[in-house]
Amino acid sequence: MVATTTAFSDLVNQLQNNFVDLKFALGSDFSWSADQKTVYYPRSTMQHAPQLLHEAAHGILGHSTYSRDLDLLKLEREAWSKAIELSKQYNIVISEDTVEDALDTYRDWLHARSSCPNCGKTGVQASAKLYKCVICPQSWRANDARTCGLKRTKL
Ligand SMILES: [Zn+2]
Ligand SMILES: [Zn+2]
Fold this sequence. Notes:
Blueprint: H1 2-18, E1 23-26, E2 31-33, E3 38-41, H2 49-60, H3 69-89, H4 96-113, E4 124-125, E5 130-132, E6 139-142, E7 152-154
The structure holds zinc ion (ZN) (2 copies).
The site of one zinc ion has 4 residues, from α2 and α3.
């Protein structure tokens, strides 16, 4: 197990050397912070190398703010194609299943996020974090930190 952990930190170091504009820092989960120009990663093994490349891809592509969920899914796709490009350079295999599973999870998350906490119908997105139900008078806010779990706050 020591060997695989070492390989993962080697990969982090390689990425850090190759992309000096980005910072790589230990965090509680895989995420990209555009504000801090930092890729966060938990202590991990090579099994999670695809996630690391994916978050690095967000950084390399300069993904920052978004307004609507539709754009969000587009950015996710872009980051995965970039991650696949990187994977060849770093000799990592990213299977189609990995990408499809990730995008499915993302779609589920988007769906849950847009579901009315009162009646369960899919709402319309009024602004980046504000949703309104089309059936009942409920509005709600959804967080954008998908790694922290979904939160819907009734308004
Ligand atoms: Zn992503
Ligand atoms: Zn409703």
